[in-house]
Amino acid sequence: MSSFRTSVEIQKANGVQLISGADSGKRATKLVNIIASTVQTTVKEVILQSSYFSMLSDGSQARKTNSEKELVMVRVVRDGVPVYHCVGLENISDYGDATAHNVKCSLDNAFQNKLKVPDGHYKNMLICATADGASVNTGTYNGVLTQLKEERPWLVTMHCVSHRVELAIKDSICKQPQFEAVKDFMVDLFYYTKRSGKFVHHLQATAEALGAKMYKFPKVHGTRFVNHQRHGVDVLLHNWIILLETIENTLASQKKQDAKLLGYRRKLKNFTFLSHCCVYQAVLEKVASLSLQFEKGSLQVFEIEPEIKRTLRELRDLQGQNPDDFLKQSGFTLHENKITCPVLKDGHKRKKPENRETVVLSLNEMTHTDGASDSVNLLKAYALPAVATCLSQRFESFQSDLFQHCHWMDPANWASEEDELREIHHLVTHFEVPLQARNFEKKHIWSEWKHLKETVETFYRKVEALAMWKKMITYRRDRFPNILLIVELVMCLGMSNSVVEGGFSHLTRMLPDTRLSMNHDTMENLLLIKLNDLVFSQSEKSQVIERSLEKFMEKRRKSKVDCDTETEIQGSETHSVVNLPGSVVHLSDSDSSSEYMDCDIES
Question: Can you spell out the DSSP letters for 99-149?
Fold first, then answer.
């Protein structure tokens, strides 16, 4: 409330014209509710105007409030581009325990009661549902996705591809004792530096004395996508020598030496352990690249399999590398028992690569240098095949006919019209109900496909698949209406829940310690406004503001009149009109002598 008042005072001081009587926290909350309601109406219009939509949902239990929330989003294709809209934030406590039935009821409520999407549209136009791998979602007999599919036989139930990569890493890399030791070390450093501000200050002072930059140790445990772990290893290797120098200085100044710091020093001087960290970084670099591709909002179903094959190929290439190659890739070189590493100077990370400067740091008296190469070779022999096997197993479902018959979407896969039409007809058969609801005419497929290929060959030969289909949907819908209905259907399939995870990140930032008492409705309204604002066009944003203000100003309320203005009103004719800042006041004889007057406030 105090921050709101401060904001109002600043705006008044700058001469901003505010609505009379609306400069209070309660009125602000009312306006937020109205804006959120208008946003929901706009999202409903988007869903009804789109050919199809996919549902993406994820649940999270807030660590601060212990309240189970289910965030619901949709993926639609607008002007040939997939976009994501927030539908609502469901409070699972309103339904009971977080069972599959209750979660499914919350999803239905978000569309049918909050957005008021017609039942027929909600049932027939929903083509895909995406969630993480929790048993409540993906259970074979009674999971949420299974229950949704019972009502829609054509529904594509998708286990989020980003979560699949994360699980593959947990099942393979993290089960290797050497890599597990590296991750445990990063977790220890995270908590140690978090609890000891004095040690962090010493780290920064050491880095400054060496002319280098010290980076904060990030959190790498818990529910984290692979790129968080890769970033953690990057920071560890960058801070390696700086950290050891700080520990040496700290131990030298202590009368009673810290056992934890002694253990850290022993690990940092262990060359074999350093080699394992470099291998860990190399493997995570390849898998994190895959994960980042999957986190893109524009990810398409026909792009999944090629990315998996590319990653598997890169992992096989790592098996052919020498142990020294992993060290060089991480920037380390070993001479006798001394390692050296170039580290970026402070402030140079944000510069262009050609303008960056480094400082070379060195470390003497490394231990366990003998046998490090054999240990790395043994680690490669077990770890890399395990990662490749887990990735292949996690993505076996993309070998099914349904996903294989989406590859014609990429012109690079065009071979013969017979094969392409067979794949298209497979999709038409599977999604018959949604297509028929959009007045799809199967008899025109062959002629449209033939002319479409001629158009691509003439005008879009060197254009990438997604850019080509965007132009087709935008400019040539009248010419290829039926083919483009299938194209939009494939583009609408949601592969990754990363946007939902991002929504929870926004929610976490909205709930600092001073806002834990925020009720669920306000929380949901703020999230609706924030997430949909990211994808609304400028015209839609303006429309939301205009609608919200009109609705806000509809309600009659009291407006205080100055004494001078009141005198003028009493001497004026009956039913005169007086213009007040931001309002129009209609007066009569009965209320002309009142200090407060009923006002019809108009925008």
Answer: -HHHHHHHHHHIIIIIS---HHHHHHSEEEEEE-S-HHHH-TTT-HHHHHH
Segment 155-180 mean pLDDT: 90
| CB contact set of 538 (below 8 Å; sequence gap of 6+) | none
Q: State residue 355's pLDDT score.
A: 85
**536: exposed, middle or buried (Cβ count in 10 Å: 0-12, 13-18, 19+):** buried
- pLDDT tens per residue across span 50-109: 999 999 999 887 666 677 899 999 999 998 999 999 999 999 989 988 899 999 999 999
Residue 99: per-residue pLDDT: 92
Give the CB-side neighbour count of residue 184, counting CA atoms within 13 A: 12
Buried b (16+ CB within 10 A) or exposed e, 4-29: eeeebeeeeeeeeeebeebbeeeeee
Could you report the per-residue pLDDT of 317-331, keeping only the tens digit for each? 998 899 899 999 999
Coil, strand or helix: which one is 557? strand
pLDDT at 315: 93
The least confident of 137-151, 357-371, 578-592 is 578-592
| Cα–Cα distance for residue pair 258/250, rounded to 1 Å | 9
| Separation CA 344–CA 351 (nearest Å) | 10
**CA-CA distance, 214 to 343, in Å (whole number)?**
10
Structure tokens at 413: 């896969």
Angle at 370 between CA 366 and CA 374, to 5 degrees: 125
Secondary structure of 349-386 in the HEC alphabet? CCCCHHHCCEEEEEECCCECCCCHHHHHHHHHHHHHHH
**pLDDT higher than threshold 50 for residue 599:** no
DSSP string, 500-514: HHHHHHHHHHH--GG
Q: How far is CA 322 from CA 213, 380, 493, in A?
A: 30, 10, 42
Of the chain, the percentage scoring pLDDT greater than 70 comes to 87
* 88 token code pair: 């609502």
CA–CA gap between residue 453 and residue 318 (Å, rounded): 40
Strand ranges inside 412-560, DSSP E = 557-560
- Taking CA atoms, 117 is separated from 40, 42, 110, 111, 271, in Å, by 11, 12, 9, 6, 62
Distance CA 559, CA 129 (A): 50
Q: Using CA atoms, how far apart are residues 59 and 103, in angstroms rounded to an integer?
A: 9
Q: Which two tokens stand for residue 212?
A: 């280098």
The residue ranges of every structural domain in the chain are: 2-160+497-552, 167-396, 400-491, 556-599
Q: Can you tell me the distance from the alpha carbon of 379 to that of 176, in angstroms, rounded to the nearest whole number?
A: 8
AA identity, residue 406: C
Residue 344 pairs in a beta bridge with: 358
Helix (H, G, I), strand (E, B) or coil at 89: strand
Q: Are strands 333-335 and 338-344 parallel, antiparallel or unpaired?
A: antiparallel
Q: What is the pLDDT of residue 549?
A: 86
CA angle 465, 467, 469 (to 5 degrees): 70
Residue 561, token pair as written in the block: 């009149």
Q: How far apart are CA 67 and CA 500, in angstroms?
A: 17
Burial of residue 301, with CB atoms counted within 10 A of its CB: 0-12 exposed, 13-18 middle, 19 or more buried? buried
Reduce the DSSP state of residue 75 to 3 states and report it.
strand
219-238 tens-digit pLDDT:
988 767 888 999 999 999 99
| CA–CA distance, 280 with 229 (Å, rounded to integer) | 10
